[in-house]
Design brief:
The protein has 190 residues and is mainly beta. 3% of the residues lie in helices and 27% in strands.
Length: 190
């Protein structure tokens, strides 16, 4: 029997089969969750600007009051039971997926300095051994200029972390992830 070589991929040629179809969770916050309802459309692009049709996106977020639904959040507030705080979706043929949630509240960071509303995003894709991590902020939010994490990012790169409102669809925000290239999204080493 002759073995035929296949293109090298660090996580193999079957990434979509292995991960993206299992346990999709597009609804991060149920309809009864408190706060401003939003739809978030994410798109993932490779270094050539081609949509990545088999990426897996995971989102973690606080509820509208800035409380994570996680035991490590030591705030005294009770988490909103309608906000699960976690979502997972694979991208479609156009490199897109959509989440339904609420705009998160401000959460305390180091030294109890409040961070701007944001979602934490993990990206898995073919050819990657480890998940890439970034944040999604909301363009135009007044708290962005006070966020200590966003302040660490050079001003000319901050736009890569901003979801943009969709003028044609109120309540819908769009966020593009560029894995490489001129528009590469800022990723964090966590």
């Amino acid at each position: 029997m002759d073995l035929i070589t296949t293109p090298s991929q660090t996580v193999g040629p079957y990434f979509r089969i292995g991960l993206t179809w299992k346990h999709p969770r597009p609804c991060i916050a149920a309809p009864e969750a408190k706060g401003e309802r939003i739809n978030l459309i994410c798109r993932v692009f490779d270094g050539d600007g081609v949509p990545v049709n088999d990426a897996l996106l995971e989102i973690w977020q606080a509820d509208a009051n800035g409380k994570y639904n996680h035991p490590d959040d030591a705030q005294a507030a009770i988490p909103d039971p309608g906000c699960h705080g976690f979502g997972r979706m694979g991208t479609d043929e156009q490199g897109s997926c959509e989440f339904q949630t609420v705009k998160p509240g401000r959460v305390p960071g180091a030294g109890n300095v409040l961070q701007a509303p944001h979602l934490n995003l993990g990206v898995f894709a073919r050819g990657m051994l480890k998940q890439f991590y970034t944040r999604i902020y909301f363009a135009g939010d007044a708290a962005n200029h006070e966020d200590p994490v966003l302040a660490l990012v050079p001003a000319e790169r901050r736009s890569t972390l901003m979801a943009q409102p969709d003028a044609e669809h109120p309540g819908t925000w769009r966020f593009d992830v560029h894995m490489q290239g001129d528009q590469e999204t800022v990723f964090f080493d966590v």
